[in-house]
Amino acid sequence: MLPLKEMAEELASHFPKKHPQGNTPMFPPEGEVALMFLKPYTGLSDDGLVEMLNGSLHMQMFCGVLIDPSRPIKDGKIVSAIRNRLAPALDIVKQQGVLYGKWKSLLNDKDLCMSDATCYESHLRYPTDIKLMWECCQWLHALLHKISREMGERLSRSKYNDIAKDRLAYAKQRKPKKSATRRM
User: How does DSSP classify residue 7?
Assistant: First the structure.
């Protein structure tokens, strides 16, 4: 039911025709895409996925490869190597279009958009006044440093380093007192 062939065609430019040592790749393009689906589906580590792939004929058939039991895959980094090669070429909008085209008849609410919170940016944080003011101070200090370097003058004296130490001590406090917050 997965459109592996169509998805592999979208990533065709990043599938090697020949391995750098001259032999053909172990997985076909569809198999590499299938392997990327198996990773989150099984919830296994790269080494665990390779171990399961070596032992399960069904997983091998899903990935379009037949592994000789006397010569199993020993390199657990193969999954990571495939992921690193395909990631720069992944255009999520095109891949979603392929999946939507295949599953359009099975979807009930076509105008409903749902997102899982695990796919959002991980660098989001609560913007406190202290954090915002410190980011402004960092930006201004960097700007002063750049301008003084361009003009060939010394950087003017400031208490930037002292405040940086105080701010770090404040940030490390588990629950700072209101007076410490006011002082910062």
Answer: H
25 vs 37, residue with greater confidence: 37
CA distance 46 to 75: 10
Please state the separation of Cα 3 from the chain's center in Å.
23
- pLDDT score recorded for residue 128: 87
Residues in Cβ contact with 86 at an 8 Å cutoff, skipping those fewer than 6 apart: 11, 14, 32, 33, 36
Can you tell me the distance from the alpha carbon of 52 to that of 178, in angstroms, rounded to the nearest whole number? 55
DSSP string, 34-91: HHHHHHHHHT--HHHHHHHHHH-HHHHHHTT----TTS----TTHHHHHHHHHGGG--
Q: Are 69 and 97 a contacting pair, CB within 8 Å? A: no
CB 87 within 8 A of CB 14: no
pLDDT band at residue 133 under the 50/70/90 scheme: very high
- The count of other CB atoms within 10 Å of the CB of residue 35 is 23
Q: How far apart are CA 79 and CA 131, in angstroms?
A: 39
- CA dist 153 and 27 (Å) reads 60
Residue 169: the pLDDT is 93
pLDDT higher than threshold 90 for residue 29: no
